[in-house]
Amino acid sequence: MRDDFSKPTIAKLAARAGHLCSNPECRKPTIGPAAGHEGFIIVGVAGHITAASLGGPRFDPTLSHEQRRHQSNGIWVCEVCGKLIDSDVNHFTVELLRGWKNTAEARAFRSISTAAFGSQPGLDELFPLGEPSAELLASTGFPRDVGADIP
Q1: Domain extents in the chain
Q2: With contact defined as beta carbons under 8 Å apart, do 71 and 62 qualify?
Q3: What pLDDT does residue 36 have?
């Protein structure tokens, strides 16, 4: 029996990665408009860090069914990277995938928490931080360079 992710868990994984592939060498957008109609296309997948079933890539027999289905055991990637990580388990280890996930979520947070204040690299020069924005930034408690150490 497979311990698949629920639809809400899949949506959470995609959102927490900013709908970008979590592979730091890919970062491909995984959602966009459909060309032929008003809908959209999703080219991302919620991958299991440790397999959903016995015999799968990186299976961990110590996890419960609930733990295998939990968002902490998932990573959001594009379809190509999803195939890669399940085809080469010696290279794409649990530790590597957890690192990708943590970095992707930190980047997504940095993107939403700093872009509005003009502190993304290059934006300070285009849009200098004025007094009202500086006051707003100070009121949040976030340092101006939050997440700057994330590659």
Answers
A1: 7-116
A2: no
A3: 87
Alpha helix segments (H runs only) across 17-130: 65-69, 79-87, 94-114, 123-126
Residue whose structure tokens are 């497979």: 2
Check: CB of residue 30 under 8 Å from CB of residue 14: yes
pLDDT of residue 1: 84
Helices 94-114, 7-16: inter-axial angle, 10-degree rounding: 70
How far, in Å, CA of 25 to CA of 47, rounded?
A: 17
Q: Which residue has the tokens 């195939």?
A: 83
Whether 90 and 68 have beta carbons less than 8 Å apart is answered as: no
CA distances from 122 to 109, 115, 119, 127, 148 (A): 18, 11, 8, 9, 13
pTM of the model: 0.74
Q: What phi and psi values does residue 50 have, to the nearest 5 degrees?
A: -110, 140
Helices then strands (H, E): number in the chain? 6, 4
